[in-house]
Give the backbone structure.
Amino acid sequence: MKYRNLIAFVTVSSVLVISPSVFAKNGDKDKSLPPGLEKKLQRTGELPPGWQKKLAVGNVMETRVYEHSRVVVPVDRKGVITVQVEDRVVRLIQATREIVEILD
């Protein structure tokens, strides 16, 4: 019985110690653009081609890109908003910024 309690304690303790590092990795998805790209976006309003490719169905739109986008169609009852990023029109879920559809 003592060993069972000890094993349970060690298991729970290790899960609690490991959990914050796992959550930190998942929280890293919403980081901002690198400083140079952010300056370019503010100056020209355009993203480099490599960053434009990140606009793909299923990906989450970066916060800075979303902030610089122009709303084309406001949020509908399903929570989907349509925005324009440079020459692309993108439909995404407003709450999560997950890209649902890209309309060229």
Remarks:
- The longest strand covers residues 80-85.
- Strands lie at 70-73, 80-85, 88-93, 99-103.
